[in-house]
Amino acid sequence: MPPNNLFAALPPAGPDEAVETLLARGAVRIERIVSTGQASPPGFWYDQDEDEFVVLLAGAATLSFDDGRELALRPGDVVDIPAHCRHRVDSTQADPPTIWLAIFHR
Amino acid sequence: MPPNNLFAALPPAGPDEAVETLLARGAVRIERIVSTGQASPPGFWYDQDEDEFVVLLAGAATLSFDDGRELALRPGDVVDIPAHCRHRVDSTQADPPTIWLAIFHR
């Protein structure tokens, strides 16, 4: 069962980010992602077929884009990442964990 | 310009909820809604053509559904409201304001 509260029932920290699908219906998938210090591997860029609208709910993170843009995110920040907009996660706060709400759509 | 941070640039309290569209693309519309004590009028039920996935980000609210379910929402709570699931907002906290993220989709 996905959580009814995004700040509750946090999975234990592990080597990977914890991804839970909250809703997947039609053209939309909504995930809670809990990061505990993970970052994209050196030289790795996400290049997604779906648009992603992401909200940083707790913690902190830095993103960069292959056009050179860098974003330092704090709770409440939102980022619209269109499909094939190459981006990477440079850092995430480990403790307290970083909690994201990610809305993937087409 | 919609806000880049959901907790920032809150609109001044007025008689109505303040609705800002953060993204509208394809089958998805994402809104920030700021409530300052508003509630649905007596006997009013929302009966929407779109599915709505709503997150209470700050404040507090109570929802009810025409099957008798009642939900008291606190920050981080999420609710999946399928299209034509009749519901109403019984109360919202006025101060500090209640902040919602609403994801409408088809």
Task: Name a few traits of the molecule.
homodimer; 106 residues; mainly beta; Jelly Rolls; five-stranded antiparallel beta sheet; three-stranded antiparallel beta sheet; 8 strands
Please characterize this protein's 3D structure:
Chain A has no helices and 8 strands. With 106 residues, the first copy, chain A, is mainly β. Chain A has a single domain, classed as Jelly Rolls (Sandwich). In chain A, the strands form 2 sheets. Chain A has a 5-stranded antiparallel β-sheet with strand order 1-2-8-3-6, with no helix packed on it. The radius of gyration of chain A is 13 Å and the shape is globular. The mean pLDDT of chain A is 96. Chains A, B: Pfam families: Cupin_2. Chains A, B: Residues 37-104 form the Cupin type-2 domain. Chains A, B: It comes from Blastochloris viridis (Rhodopseudomonas viridis).
Helix/strand layout:
The structure is a homodimer of 106-residue chains.
Chain A: E1 18-25, E2 28-35, E3 51-58, E4 61-65, E5 70-73, E6 78-81, E7 87-92, E8 98-105
Antiparallel strand pairs in A: 1-2, 2-8, 3-6, 3-8, 4-5, 4-7
